[in-house]
Amino acid sequence: MSLPDVVWLNTSTSLQCFAQPLLARLSHQVTLAQWNYQQDPDKGCSFDEAIFQLHQYISTLKQPVHLIGHSTAGLLGLFYTRRYPDNVKSLTLLAVGNNPAVDWQSHYYAHRPLMNRQKLLNAMVYNLFGYQDKQTLQDLITILEQDLESSLSPNSLFRQMNVLPGGVSVPLMIYGGQNDLIVELEALQGWQPWLKAEDRLLTCSEGRHFFHFFQASQVGEQILKFWNNFSQPNLTKDPSLCNVIPKI
């Protein structure tokens, strides 16, 4: 089996469902593997531990790879790329602003002292996905509750992390939603002073925070164009790796 050219980073089991349309789109053109980090609920969140485990995996590939991640998974990719740039061909960050530590949980915890949990989760669903019918609303609340309990996040009720942008020597793509209420357009544009000539900053007009779910075809096309700029020969599909993409 061929080694992957691309590694999708996942730090949230509950939110991974929103990546599936994009992964399905990309898997038609690239050899892609998913790397998952499972946060131990009995231990504090540790990016050092996540970086260590990710490095163990990437070291087995024996070649640089394109890293891609959404939100906190993108932050993990940023930390890893800063520490091990020789292992990374390029870094693609989805919904990661110029304070890369900002995620939906940071907004949740900032407002938690002012609202009860149920009302706040209702509001977060609207901010993340727009208006939903009653059943879908409840399903999404359940997903967010699971994410609060079991995902890697730099934020909590007692601490909000700040991380500076930049520090990436490899080609970098920043991609976000224009109507994202978590990572707003201004936060995406805040990357501009740190971008190199080969870097890209793109926005999607629709889809909010999970724009890559709602606009998977458009987002996938732009990401593939970016990767092909730094791949010789161009990335191609390897059928033997298709099984790393779960069915939608």
UniProtKB/TrEMBL annotation:
Lineage summary: Bacteria, Bacillati, Cyanobacteriota, Cyanophyceae, Oscillatoriophycideae
Location of the AB hydrolase-1 domain: 62-151
Name the UniProt record assigns to this protein: AB hydrolase-1 domain-containing protein
SUPFAM superfamilies: alpha/beta-Hydrolases (SSF53474)
Entries under InterPro entries matching the protein: AB_hydrolase_1 (IPR000073), AB_hydrolase_fold (IPR029058)
One Pfam short name: Abhydrolase_1
